[in-house]
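Notes from hallway chat w/ T.B., transcribed later so I don't forget. T.B. wanted the structure written out for a chain they're using in a teaching module, and asked if we could keep both sequence and structure tokens in one place. Agreed to drop them here.
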Amino acid sequence: LMFPLRAGGRVVGLAELFTHDAQRAFTAAEIQLARALADQAGVAIENARLFQAAREQRELAEALRQVGTTLSATLDYNTVLDRLLEHIARVVPYDSASMMMVEGRRARVARVRGYERFGPRVIRAASAISYNIAATANLRRMSETARPLVIPDTRAYPGWEITEASAHIRSWIGAPVVVQGELIAFFSLDKIEANFYRPEHAERLAAFA
């Protein structure tokens, strides 16, 4: 016996009931009760989703407020980059992350965080990276659109280069940092599990950037 879970005129899930007795059929009363419970479950699920969405928005607003407060307290360049990578984890989770500064036609890694878990060689390799933006598919895309980019699975993304610094990366998200129409930097966030990042992460990262 299967019922759709509905809320606000749309289906938000399915409920299934099974019996192991092949000779027994669900009664009309049982079907009516199951339908009523399914309707209540749909409303409960939608309410939980709305509550979760509101909580995430409050967390994002608080994170952005703290970023502004923290960054306005210092003008030290390296401290600003470190704190950006520290605070961004509250908005979008990551296993490793970097901040790339745009210098002419290249993007140079200026700060990394989280790479220490992969060993000193990976840290050194990641810290020394300098990309040609036009020749790097994901950076070129962000520079052209001025929008974040999500790569759910790097193994399925054309042009993704597997190096010592990127061998652990399976899901990736990035965002350009644009000031007064000028591209000045990129955020680059990584997860070791494929299909982790989704469009909602891109929206949160865009707000942070």
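Follow-up for T.B.: The mean pLDDT is 89. Might be a good example for the class.
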